[in-house]
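Quick one:
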Amino acid sequence: MRILVAPDSFKGSLEAVDFCRISQQVIAQQLPNAEVICRPMADGGEGTVAAIIEGAGGRYHQCTVKGPLGCPVDAVWGQLNNGVAVIEMAAAAGITLVEKTSLNPLKASTWGVGELIVDALDKGCRQFIIGLGGSATNDGGAGALQALGCRLLDADNKVLIRGGEALSQLVTIDLKGLDQRLSDCEFTIACDVANPLLGGDGATAVFGPQKGADAHDLIILEQALTQFSSLLSQYGKDVVNTPGAGAAGGMAAGMLALLPAKLQPGFDIIREHLHLDDVFKQGLDLVITGEGAFDSQSFAGKLPIALANLAKQHQVPVVVVTGCRGDGYREGREYGVTTVLPLCNKPMSLDQAMSNSEVLLQEVIEELCQILKIATLKAC
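Output:
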């Protein structure tokens, strides 16, 4: 029996590499004749760098940068053996870097992401994979552009302070100081949402509340991004209606408008670098994947569904392990998901579930192995 274990991270509780480690250990104990292929996955957010570097080979670099609210953070980015830089914005502007009580998308900035790009430029990188996801920001990528030398000026020709709110005062985008090395670069932006920059389905309306924005903040941030987009169209490309431009607080929009960048589904990037097609062609009996919550929202490009679609093409059953099995989870069967197994085996709080995620996962995989033993006996 060949089993592919390819989960996303469970944000804040269980890394994809730990999911793989625990699953492999349990399966080795329960099904000693099974071959387990581990591929930690990611969708552009946390874990993207590790997934690509561990799966394709490369090395890590560490750089101290400004976090979402300006405090220094030690961020890691990766470099593939062919020189391509792999950066996840969550490492420098991620929501997990800010205490819940301190989340403030009005002031949060992507400046640190720009600093990571500069560090990669200094190390000779000219091709980039930028994973969008898990951000605490709503600044349209303005902070990253500022760190790269772009000057954002108000009516008095003064440089804007960082953060999404300040963009409402934007009058001029000065590109003269933009790092000249960027003209020789190519940016592939890993993006798994189709949200535009503005409107009811845009960056602010959809993602702002989870970053701490209240009703009044949402109005301010939408006005600020509207102003920013009007200037982007003057100095770069008009991307306001581009599907995916609203990803990561609109960071996709800023990069697409002013940098040599293109959007690509995060799963497609991971699939290519981890040679997933080859793994399936060699034959599989089961795929085990997972994410923190699995519900109707998972069908909008989330990793387990993308993986299930691939498995469906090869007629391989898929088990999704999840921390929360929400409304609409059964619809996953239409996409190739065979069953969805929740981690929680009894009533417990979210904090209890997150703090005991490794033990809960071990128990779920043990039970799954028992089911597989029964299936194997019946097949014989």
